[in-house]
Design goal:
By secondary structure, this protein is mostly helical. The protein has two domains: 1-67, no CATH class; 69-107. The chain is 61% helix and 11% strand. The chain has five helices and three strands, in the order E-H-H-E-E-H-H-H. The chain has helices at 16-23, 27-35, 56-67, 69-122, 140-145, and strands spanning 13-15, 41-46, 49-55. Strand 2 (41-46) and strand 3 (49-55) form a beta hairpin. The chain is elongated, with a radius of gyration of 34 Å.
Length: 146
């Protein structure tokens, strides 16, 4: 029997179709587990298409008992490897886009630097003079007393 709240917790349930894809089990295997009362299920339908909703922990326990723990570990590792490869691919695409944007920004800054240099040289300015430090302002209250 499913623990309290297990049906509502995110990631704790999956459909029979997702179980087939993720764990490599058939619908007949899932139905056999339901008929032997080793798997709980709930009926569901999306856009008129019926499916079975299963508790992930029960399904993993059932797969481990029927097909062996080695099979379960192998399938879970394969699924995690797929997720990691997908994430790496997405990060590579994002990195490529960011590097392209960086190159555009650097090029833009270099173009602006060339424009600034050419405009000062056309004015006859050969070098820029650093700003001079101004003396501190006198306190107006000091003059009020005098």
């Amino acid at each position: 029997m499913a623990k309290h709240g297990e049906w509502n917790r995110k990631g704790a349930t999956l459909s029979d179709v997702a179980a087939e894809a993720e764990y490599g089990v058939t619908r007949a295997f899932i139905i056999k587990g339901i008929q032997t009362a080793r798997l709980e299920y709930r009926d569901g339908a999306i856009w008129g298409n019926p499916y079975l909703r299963l508790v992930r922990s029960q399904l993993e326990k059932y797969i481990g008992e029927e097909l062996g723990e080695a099979y379960l570990v192998k399938v879970k590792n394969q699924a995690e490897l797929r997720r990691v490869k997908k994430e790496i691919s997405a990060l590579k695409k994002k990195l490529k886009a960011l590097e392209g944007r960086k190159a555009d920004l650097v090029e833009s800054l270099e173009d602006e630097g060339e424009k600034a240099t050419s405009s000062t040289s056309s004015l006859g300015i050969t070098h820029l003079v650093p700003p001079q430090k101004l003396p501190p302002l006198e306190d107006p209250a000091a003059h009020a007393d005098a």
